[in-house]
Amino acid sequence: MPSGAINQEVDQQYKQKARETVSQLSLEEKILQMVHGASEISRLGIPAYNWWNEALHGVARAGVATVFPQAIGLAATFDPEWIEQVADIISTEGRAKYEAASSRGDRDIYKGLTFWSPNINIFRDPRWGRGHETYGEDPYLTAECGKAFIAGIQGSDDRYLKAAACAKHYAVHSGPEGLRHSFDAEVSDKDLWETYLYAFEECVIEAKVESVMGAYNRTNGEACCAHTYLLEEVLRGQWGFDGHVTSDCWAIKDMNEGHGLTRTLHESAALAVKRGCDLNCGNAYLTLMSAFDEGLIEEKDLDQALIRLMTARYRLGLLGECGDSPYNNIPFKVVDCPEHRAANLETAKRSLVLLKNDGLLPLDREKIKSLAVIGPNADSRDALLGNYNGTPNDPCTPLSGLAEAVMPDTRILYAEGCHLYKESMTGLSQKGDRLAEALACVDEADATVICLGLDAMLEGEEGDTGNEFSSGDKPDLNLPGLQQQLLDEVLQRGKPVILVVMAGSALALATAEENANAVIQAWYPGGQGGRAVAQLIFGDYSPSGRLPVTFYHTSEELPDFTDYAMKDRTYRYMTRKPLYPFGYGLSYTSFEYSGLQTKTISSVSESPSEERNHVLAIVSGQVKNTGKTEGREVIQLYTKAENAPDTSDQPHHQLRGVQTVLLKPGETADFSFELKTKHLWQVAADGGRHLVPGQYTVFVGGCQPDTRSAQLLQAKPVSDSFLL
């Protein structure tokens, strides 16, 4: 039984109770239960409930909580098992905060147990502002991280959900933010099924996610929140989804105002309900009485949606007798407790990606007598957090972490150097007013840590960003404002330079790759992020993070932002050499792979294509730590079909397995992967998925089997071939 899957007999009881509850509601009461702020029905003992809550990387927008690295940083761990533990902590704190709030009469927004996370959209273009909410560009990694997060959120009890997760935004949604209320994401059947639906299918079928959220945009002409094919044929039909569907917030009104698919708001509301959108984030469903009066909708349509919503509340133990729920008495003191902070620090350490190191790192504490720490993100709390975040109780920035990590007599010289995106720090000063101060610090120091990048005010959701890039998307991949000038001038001073990039997406870092001594991609590393950065720099652990996205040289090599075709996008289809490839990351130690072998379990004729989890082959081998430092290795398995009728239409290779292992110097570990039917499907132009007989190649190592990874790492994955 998957985590989050309630015993079938118990679930049938919940559904029956839900039917009985719904049968006692008046038409007006039914409508008031279908918006995110559901009203109290005191005569039936139904308390008010606000469905809208967020838990992307910690319980969000409701005060203090453990703030883990942003989702893109979680993906950089390449460790789904660890992500499940992170999500379990999040749901533990969510339960504690819910009980504390509801028992004191607080049933406001962000206080419920229905978490609208994870975001499993594909980060297909680095300009998309919300990409840092996702698990990156790869469908497999996204699916594995998403399933793990859902398992941690929903728990493993067979009678109650610990909390309810939500897979969003369904489907084919990744910008542009400024167009999302009217945009039609046109996509081929092949890209739809090979790339955009893969993670959703896994999260629905395998992880039993309780909720799915529809996107703002249209997909191939239909609004996602009222999509015949996506909602009725695929989600409810082919996948047998048994949870509830919610709209994105105020997306229903886009159907008439932005997409022009209906004439009025109540027509939009009626169409969405009839197509299977059960809950409205917003107030459009309050017009359903008008739709009912005009004959656009029947009461049975409302009942179907309400039964799903009430079933969810019974599953959570929010209605009915729930004294046997193991989640009722989680104490408030667990919120941001020492154990959770320790897990947060460990998560941040696993998320950091060392992109370059010419041998400078790790620094020797004994030899560093003065350290310059400069840049607009060096002491920025905002740069720790990303978006959809809680409030860390004691946030540690890189400046704080480095001050804590150095020897007691080491001098820290700090300067911002420039504003994050403006040309001066005050309205009266000249352009570059903090540059001289930063250079003075560099000149006085033995080494420099320069912290640049973005924050969620620069990249994020439309309406949440707060500067001239108000749509939330990036115009290009360049460092904003005067940051590039600051970096260039620091690099020219002739001192050792470590660049720490705090951003949720790929930036153009060619100058740093060429001239800096070391480059660290820190993402938005959470409340303990500064400590993790400092401990990496001084060698308290060996970095193990890997890039869940491709780092391009410039945005000029990218297809048009509005083009949803996967051609020339991401590592699977790009034709140019990247700056830093997907799956790449350096370590302070080295690993060697040996003994790779592939054992075929069954042939194509014995493996019906529809049996998604049928095991076709087992790939095994050994990995050894050949360095002098303990380190965690991220073992990556990629497959390539050598038998495709048209290889130009197939991915170069695809990630199909990840494992992590912590090894002492000289220690060896065995690894084993199962290759299942779903891992070796080839997707045709019509979206059909087939097992094709012939030769397949598997690659296993600490990176993908591309020329740029080999160039950067001076190592290649080991490979083997087998026939199906």
Number of strands: 23
Largest sheet: 6 strands, mixed
Strand order of the largest sheet: 9-14-13-12-10-11
Q: SS-based structural class?
A: alpha/beta
CATH level-3 fold name of the largest domain:
TIM Barrel
| Bulk shape | globular
The CATH first-level class of the largest domain comes to Alpha Beta
* CATH superfamily membership of the largest domain: Glycoside hydrolase, family 3, N-terminal domain
Unreliable sequence segments:
none
What percentage of amino acids are in beta strands?
A: 15-25%
**Helical content class:** 25-40%
Determine the mean pLDDT.
Answer: 96
CATH architecture heading of the largest domain:
Alpha-Beta Barrel
For the termini, the CA-CA separation is: 30 Å
Number of domains: 3
From the alpha carbons, calculate the radius of gyration and give it in angstroms.
Answer: 26 Å
- Output the number of helix runs: 22
Write the layout of secondary structure elements.
Blueprint: H1 8-23, H2 27-32, E1 37-38, E2 49-50, H3 71-76, H4 80-102, H5 139-154, E3 166-170, E4 184-185, H6 189-196, H7 198-205, E5 211-214, E6 218-219, E7 222-223, H8 228-238, E8 244-246, H9 254-257, H10 265-275, H11 288-293, H12 299-315, H13 338-351, E9 353-357, E10 370-374, H14 382-385, H15 398-405, E11 411-415, H16 435-444, E12 447-453, H17 483-491, E13 497-502, H18 510-515, E14 518-521, H19 529-537, H20 570-573, E15 591-600, E16 615-625, E17 631-641, E18 654-663, E19 668-676, H21 677-680, E20 682-683, E21 689-690, E22 695-701, H22 707-713, E23 718-723
Parallel strand pairs: 3-5, 4-6, 5-8, 10-11, 10-12, 12-13, 13-14
Antiparallel strand pairs: 1-2, 6-7, 9-14, 15-16, 16-19, 17-18, 17-22, 20-21, 22-23
